[in-house]
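Practice problem 4.
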């Protein structure tokens, strides 16, 4: 692990104990299902059993004593029947139209949770079915139209130069199509909330969630309440990965409606099968590339068509699409390029946020495509990258000048050295000839923008606070949430370092919209870089507020004494800091050009795989991850972030396949939705290169989403080297390997792919 030298900090760059660690280890942490309230009832959801149609009737079976239950339908919603996201198309409860098979229609509450199962089954709904739309291709046909005028939630066009001028000069024109499937976040703790409603105090919801102010806004809109009559409180959250970004607005609204009608607190807690079937997943995608290169493999220009399946409602599809669009060009210099992108409606449950947020889909395509171009040109995959890496001072596909000190060549050399890339390739070329187990090496080069895209951070205008307590502590006030990734620990390190006090002198307020300012959502690899920098600024503001009692080089004791004196003389000591964009960061939303992100993380990942030609099973044997992420604030947590992301990426590549049947997730249980276990994950060797970012806290950039982007293309590139078969869709399951290996080359079906799977390859003389 490479660490920057010359750092004078005592806390930042070290690995103190996690703030929430002892409570979790000792069983003191209380999750939603650990919490009860006096008179609390339990809630459940009656969902659609069809993908598309209309409701004809709802019947309540007579054997259930319905007078013991609280029943909520769309008719009970006092105002607008929608969940507040970016667009207001997501109905809270279906009244007439059914758009997907998990559509909520009726809510039930009862004091005995066990009675709810039979009650849900006793609600009979008669439908008039309509034809469903279940794929991107179906949606493009617009037969039927299920959303808007053309089934398109959002589209983007990103252009640099005149791409049509390059085809005539190309030595090669390479085309390819690449697909990725849906992926479940599979957090340890399912979605759950407790809601309470009062005519005088309004709505309060306790939730396992990432973004308290998203839920707060959704409740304000649903109940037409002012902001001071709505509270959203995060409780201990057992994992999220994006799956608890927007969905708590759904389950939180449902519980609040039940609480309003029941006049008592209501808990809603999904079981695993319901969580898998009904909540958001990673968007399936299709990417088509057409690339012009010269005789030496230099990129001249390209056209990329990027499409994602948004499901039945728009939710966060437009921002997922945006990040996927910007990352579609990869970490390469394109003289000219055009990326057309669209998010399409289908009759599947809505797709949403998942670690990486569109980038894993488009990076998968570009990194498979770069390997294919190398084969056509006749150079090695690594040489293809070397000749095209973007460098400092060059411009990205959005026209952004790269100001980072980027050295992808150095990162790639490090990754190859640590993985033994060249020696293993040479060894496997010999041993594969006589072995049923084929070994291969593959890699992926990529980048990931930190923070919200374009003008997103300016729009958020995040605020954080610090306050000194009478007990001699400093409290961090943020809506940024802890769900296992280290938010509380990192922000405490930054505050303690800036204030020259001890790590244990800092505490973090549990996020509660009535007690903390809106520091923005805990997404987009923004917490350490953006929120952390605001914590640092607030700390400097606190020092300035204390003023004269603090001389230069003050001690911890002098600082705490100055805080106590200020509180005694003036009352509360509280300092706020508001986001200001770094200089020279400008984005044009209309032209979709400019500075997409204030900073990028850069990486090269190398995978070693073994494909058994007898069982058709693929195993990842070794994995090396080298990345430049700015300053590493907490080495242990940073390493854990990379290891966890790689493990999820391995699942994305070869294990986690969502089986769709007419819009229904058919394998919505842990016995048949397979994730990589500890027995399936190889040694993951993590290395950091540190180039501090001037506008991040102590030089930090984003890290959380980056490791999701590279594993899948690296693994499939390795599988192709091992077998000679080109797989351009993930996940690749054993049955996919079997089909490719046993398909007759003379059958009428598509032949065995022993060369790049292009829709067309041309060479000009």
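Answer key:
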């Amino acid at each position: 692990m490479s660490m920057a030298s010359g750092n004078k900090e005592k806390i930042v760059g070290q690995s103190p104990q996690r703030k929430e660690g002892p409570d979790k280890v000792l069983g003191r942490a209380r999750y939603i299902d650990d919490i009860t309230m006096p008179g609390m009832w339990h809630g459940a959801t009656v969902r659609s059993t069809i993908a598309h149609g209309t409701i004809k009737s709802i019947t309540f079976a007579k054997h259930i004593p319905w007078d013991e239950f609280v029943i909520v339908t769309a008719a009970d919603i006092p105002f607008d029947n929608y969940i507040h996201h970016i667009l207001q198309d997501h109905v809270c409860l279906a009244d007439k139209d059914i758009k997907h098979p998990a559509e909520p229609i009726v809510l039930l509450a009862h004091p005995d949770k066990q009675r709810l199962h039979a009650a849900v089954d006793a609600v009979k709904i008669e439908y008039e079915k309509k034809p469903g739309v279940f794929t991107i291709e179906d949606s493009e046909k617009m037969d039927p139209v299920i959303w808007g005028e053309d089934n398109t939630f959002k589209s983007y066009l990103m252009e640099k130069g005149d791409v049509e001028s390059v085809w005539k000069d190309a030595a090669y024109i390479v085309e390819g199509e690449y697909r990725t499937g849906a992926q479940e976040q599979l957090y340890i703790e399912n979605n759950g909330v407790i809601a309470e409603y009062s005519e005088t105090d309004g709505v309060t919801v306790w939730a396992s969630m990432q973004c308290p102010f998203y839920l707060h806004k959704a409740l304000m809109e649903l109940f037409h309440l002012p902001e001071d009559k709505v509270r959203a409180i995060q409780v201990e959250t057992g994992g999220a990965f994006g799956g608890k970004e927007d969905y708590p607005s759904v389950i939180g609204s449902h519980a609040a409606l039940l609480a309003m009608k029941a006049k008592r607190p209501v808990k809603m807690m999904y079981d695993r099968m319901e969580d898998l079937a009904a909540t958001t997943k990673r968007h399936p995608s299709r990417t088509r590339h057409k690339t012009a290169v010269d005789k030496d493999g230099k990129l001249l220009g390209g056209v990329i068509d990027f499409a994602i399946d948004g499901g039945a409602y728009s939710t966060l599809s437009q921002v997922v699409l945006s990040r996927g669009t910007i990352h579609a060009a990869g970490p390469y210099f394109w003289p000219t390029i055009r990326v057309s992108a669209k998010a399409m409606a289908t009759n599947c449950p809505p797709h949403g946020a998942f670690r990486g947020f569109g980038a894993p889909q488009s990076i998968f395509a570009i990194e498979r495509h770069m390997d294919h171009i190398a084969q056509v040109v006749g150079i090695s995959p690594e040489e293809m990258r070397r000749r095209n890496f973007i460098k400092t001072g060059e411009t990205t596909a959005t026209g952004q000048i790269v100001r980072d000190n980027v050295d992808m060549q150095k990162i790639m050399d490090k990754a190859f050295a640590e993985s033994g890339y060249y020696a293993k390739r040479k060894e496997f070329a010999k041993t594969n000839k006589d072995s049923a187990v084929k070994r291969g090496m593959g890699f992926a080069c990529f980048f990931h923008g930190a923070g919200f895209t374009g003008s997103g951070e300016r729009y958020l205008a995040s605020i954080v606070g610090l306050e000194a307590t009478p007990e001699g502590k400093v409290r961090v006030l943020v809506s940024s949430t802890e769900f296992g990734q280290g938010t509380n620990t990192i922000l405490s390190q930054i505050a303690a370092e800036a204030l020259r006090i001890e790590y244990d002198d800092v505490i973090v307020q549990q996020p509660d919209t009535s007690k903390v300012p809106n520091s923005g959502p805990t997404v987009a690899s923004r917490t350490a870089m953006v929120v952390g920098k605001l914590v640092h600024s607030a700390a400097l503001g606190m020092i300035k507020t204390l003023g004269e009692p603090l001389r230069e080089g003050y001690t911890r004791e002098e600082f705490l004494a100055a805080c106590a004196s200020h509180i005694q003389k003036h009352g509360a000591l509280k300092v706020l800091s508001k986001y200001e964009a770094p200089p020279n960061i400008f984005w044009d939303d209309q032209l979709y050009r400019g500075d997409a992100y204030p900073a990028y993380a850069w990486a090269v990942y190398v995978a070693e795989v073994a494909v058994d030609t007898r069982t058709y099973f693929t195993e990842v044997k070794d994995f090396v991850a080298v990345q430049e992420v700015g300053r590493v604030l907490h080495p242990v947590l940073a390493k854990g972030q990379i290891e966890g992301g790689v493990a999820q990426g391995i699942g994305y590549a070869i294990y986690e396949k969502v089986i769709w049947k007419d819009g229904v997730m058919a394998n919505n249980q842990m016995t048949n939705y397979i994730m990589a276990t500890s027995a399936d994950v190889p040694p993951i060797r993590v290395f950091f290169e540190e180039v501090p970012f001037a506008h991040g806290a102590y030089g930090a950039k984003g890290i959380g989403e980056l490791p999701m982007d590279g594993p899948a293309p690296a693994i499939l590139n390795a599988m192709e080297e091992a077998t000679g078969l080109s797989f351009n869709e993930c996940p690749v399951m054993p049955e996919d390997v079997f089909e490719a290996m046993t398909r007759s080359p003379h059958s009428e079906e598509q032949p065995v792919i022993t060369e790049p799977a292009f829709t067309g390859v041309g060479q000009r003389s």
